[in-house]
Amino acid sequence: MKVTLIASVSANGKVLLANNPNHQIAPEVMGFLVQKAIESGNIVFGYSTYTMFIDALQDALAGKEIVVLSNNHEARSDHKTVHTPEEAVEYLKGKGMEEIVVGGGVQTYNAFLDKDLVTDIYFNVTPMVIGDGGVIGSKDDLFVKFDKMNYEPIIENVIRLHLSKKTGADMKKVILSVLLLGIIMGLQAQELKVINLNKPDKSRNVTLMQALDKRHSERAFANKQLTHQDLSDLLWAANGINRPSEGKRTAPSANNVQEVDIYVCMKDGCYLYDAKAHQLQPVAKGDYRSAVAGQQDFVTEAPVCLILVADLSRFNSGNPEQLLIVGACDTGIISQNISLFCSSAGLVTVPRMTMDKNTLGKILKLKKSQYLLLNHPVGYAK
Asked: Do 159 and 8 touch, CB atoms closer than 8 A?
């Protein structure tokens, strides 16, 4: 049974307190907890955390198993009260659950850790140092070793650290799932056709200063598909080849490595922009704009979503953390190209970090060296 703890912590490792106004977390961070609870079909709270959040989360978690770990209090009649972590595991296992999500508070986190039931932890690390707040892993003799650690920036100034354990059985399931997904996606992609893009229209007469003056972020889109020329010009402006003899791009990159790829999600499917051929290569059939949206549904109204992915394997050497910063910088340049083109061409967009990276990574068949950094929903103004 997979048991996942999700906690928001300070830079010095203390759990943020929901009742402290200085400890407030971003909606995207809370959204991740809710999304995991919805995906797994359940969530476990301690009683204090339960009473603090249940009214706000009741609608979002409708139909999901809500379990309260408490020895002194009872949950509402439509929710389950348990007295030990083992009881929670047995109850949810009996309900057919494959993963348990533990949403707090500190005593509940530690109860599961002390019993060595935890397989995964997500720490949402925020840039603050605090004196109050609980400590996860408070026993002196506690020792829990995890097999893998990943991290990713989720919004500005918040990093998500993921610790995980993998058993042999888990790895077999993962490998089989990846193989099956690859077969399915391969078959789906075969149904899509290569899209040949038009030559860029370089006669557009909006000046750079006018484009800068008009640049703004927009989150509402008209119910209208992009013209083929606008789509073609958008991708060329973002990171197309402007010096064919040298193969160089409209956006610079460190040492001309060109590590940033642009994936394009539309109603019919997902594509990879091939700058050299100025084509869209099929990746997966189906409308996956909801995965780009994450918890922000307005994104699904955009006819086109551009996803910027940095592939660090294209660098011959370097510290991975430094290379990720380089990739992020190069991604930012392409993002600005997109924004300025949109403002010059009568399109609207907004740069975003939020997206369902796990789902998109599978759909786009990304390697471990490829990082989903930014996305741009693009369309006409509503």
From this structure: no
Q: Does 48 fall in a domain?
A: yes
Q: What is the pLDDT of residues 235-262, one digit of tens each?
A: 999 999 999 999 999 999 999 999 999 9
pLDDT in the model for residue 203: 93
Secondary structure string (H, E, C) spanning 275-336:
CCCCEEEEEEECCCHHHHHCCCHHHHHCCEEEEEEEEHHHCCCCCHHHHHHHHHHHHHHHHH
Q: Does 180 fall in a domain?
A: no
In this prediction, the residues of the chain whose per-residue pLDDT falls under 70 are: 167-190
Measured between its terminal Cα atoms, the distance across the chain in Å is 47
Burial of 34 (0-12, 13-18, 19+ CB in 10 A): buried
How far apart are the C-alpha atoms of 354 and 259, rounded to whole Å?
21
**Domain identity same for 6 and 132:** yes
Owning domain of residue 108: 2-170
Q: What is the dihedral of CA 180, 185, 186, 191, to 10 degrees?
A: 140
Distances from the Cα of 1 to the Cα of 12, 39, 88, 135, 262, angstroms:
30, 15, 11, 25, 37
Q: Which of 125, 142, 170 is the last residue of a domain?
A: 170
The owner of tokens 């972590």 is 85
Residues 211 and 159 in one domain: no
**pLDDT tens string 108-149:** 999 999 999 999 999 999 999 998 878 998 788 889 889 888
Task: For 259-287, write each residue's pLDDT tens digit.
Answer: 999 999 999 999 999 999 999 999 999 99
Cα separation, 375 vs 364, in Å, equals 14
Residue 210 lies in a domain: yes
**Dist. CA 130–CA 10, nearest whole Å:** 7
Which of 141, 170, 199 lies at the terminal end of a domain, its last residue? 170
Secondary structure (3-state) at 235: helix
| CA nearest to 269, candidates 191, 374, 349 | 191
Based on the fold, state whether residues 164 and 198 are members of the same structural domain: no
Residues 31 and 118 in one domain: yes
Q: What are the start-end ranges of the E strands in 99-180?
A: 99-104, 120-125, 134-135, 148-155, 158-164
